[in-house]
Amino acid sequence: MLPFLAMIAAQTPPSCEYDKPAMMEWRAGHPANPRTAGLLRWHEGQLRANAGQTARAVALFEAARKPAEEDAGFGWNLYVDGSIAFLRRDLAGLDTARAKLAALPLPASYAPVGVDGRPRAYAWPMNLNILDGFVACWNQPYKQAYASAKPAMKTLPPT
User: Fold this and answer.
1) How far apart, in whole angstroms, are the C-alpha atoms of residue 77 and residue 74?
2) How far, in Å, CA of 8 to CA of 108, rounded?
3) For residues 156 and 121, is the Cβ–Cβ distance under 8 A?
4) Bridge partners of residue 69, in order along the sequence
5) Higher pLDDT pick, 17 / 67
6) What per-residue confidence (pLDDT) applies to 23?
7) C-alpha to C-alpha distance for 82 and 92, rounded to whole angstroms
8) C-beta neighbour count of 135 within 10 angstroms
9) pLDDT by residue (tens digit) across 73-127?
10) How far apart are CA 44 and CA 81, in angstroms?
11) What does pTM read for this prediction?
12) Residue 31: exposed, middle, or buried by beta-carbon count in 10 A (0-12, 13-18, 19+)?
């Protein structure tokens, strides 16, 4: 057993080096389709908000808005409004976006499914839990306020 452990300890650890310029140009070389482009911007914005890069996060959040006809009844843009208001320290704007989102009726066409193809139950309206976390943790950084949100999803029992 000891010779085996000595052999493992003597091995060179894998390198963690990478080509940073190539990684930073990934998006330019892999243009997203219009449906996913906004989502990529949104998630980059979240990473930047977590890192305290507020201005860059706000710009990315703004770019992640959906056209009105695509967002009709689902409240994505209200979630964007509330998130930007939180980052800009605009409590009135956050409260307004939250109230409008909370008032959205469940669309008749709303039938979410999970990656397994089975129906999923999501709290409605979507992302209200995040805006509630922003309100509850108003004086905290984005990362902490976002993490304070209560889960909004559960799996439906098998049918």
Assistant:
1) 8
2) 60
3) yes
4) none
5) 67
6) 66
7) 10
8) 15
9) 999 999 999 999 999 999 999 999 999 999 999 988 888 888 899 998 888 999 9
10) 17
11) 0.78
12) exposed
How many CA atoms, within 13 angstroms, populate the side-chain half-sphere of residue 10?
Answer: 6
pLDDT of residue 7: 56
138 Cβ contact list (under 8 Å, min separation 6)? 86, 91, 94, 145
For residues 94, 100, 103, 108, the Cα torsion angle rounded to the nearest 10 degrees is -120
CB 64 within 8 A of CB 38: yes
Q: For residues 74 and 22, what is the distance between their CA atoms, to the nearest angstrom?
A: 37
Please state, in angstroms and rounded to a whole number, the distance separating the CA atoms of residues 55 and 34. 24
Is the CA virtual torsion 14, 20, 25, 27 positive or negative? positive
The residues spanned by each domain of the chain are 34-105+113-155
Residue with tokens 């990656």: 115
Q: What is the pLDDT of residue 156?
A: 46
Q: Strand, helix or coil at 33?
A: coil
| pLDDT value, residue 103 | 97
E-strand spans in the chain?
120-122, 153-155
